[in-house]
Amino acid sequence: MKTTINLRFVDLPVLENASTESGLSRSELIVRCLKMLYVNERRLRVSRIGRLVEYQPRFAGYKISHIDFDAEKYNFNVNFRLFARCSVSLLVTLAISLYLNDVINDRDVVISQDNYLEYKHEWRHNLGICAEEWAVTWNVRAAKGS
Q: Which among 128, 144, 124 is positioned nearest to 136, based on CA atoms?
């Protein structure tokens, strides 16, 4: 699934070089960085559902870029954005700045199988508030070394 994100100008050449060096696409590098971000950043494990969504600073050196996620990863990123209350572009920026070097230097840092693609959608009745609810549950497993 093609999608558009805002990448920092400073990250663009770094991503291109990493892609050339590793033989992985920019999209794959971003996905691997995001996996590490989701399982390693403790601050993202606490729901911020009552807060406004945090975006990157306006006019701060970003370029619109296109990346490819498969449908499952795209859906997870959109759902995680709701939980963490950060834009996907901001999550990508954080992931690249924190984990790109790890991904480039040690391809085994991220386990080969997808570490978050077990999920279920559930429609249920909440007796406590006498209302119908829709729940999306993701099984996020820790990456190697965390």
A: 124
Residue 142's φ and ψ, nearest 5 degrees, are: -70, 145
Confirm whether 131 is domain-assigned: no
Residue 6, token pair as written in the block: 């805002």
Number of independent structural domains in the chain = 1
Range with the lowest mean pLDDT among 42-46, 55-59, 126-130?
A: 42-46
CA–CA distances in Å: residue 24 to residues 27, 29, 86, 87, 88:
8, 6, 26, 24, 21
Tell me, yes or no, if the pTM score tops 0.85: no
What is the span of the domain harbouring residue 17? Answer: 2-111
Do the Cβ atoms of 132 and 123 come closer than 8 Å?
yes
* HSE of 116, CA atoms in CB hemisphere, 13 A: 24
One-letter amino acid for residue 115 of the chain:
N
Residue 12 exposed, middle or buried by CB count within 10 Å (0-12, 13-18, 19+): middle
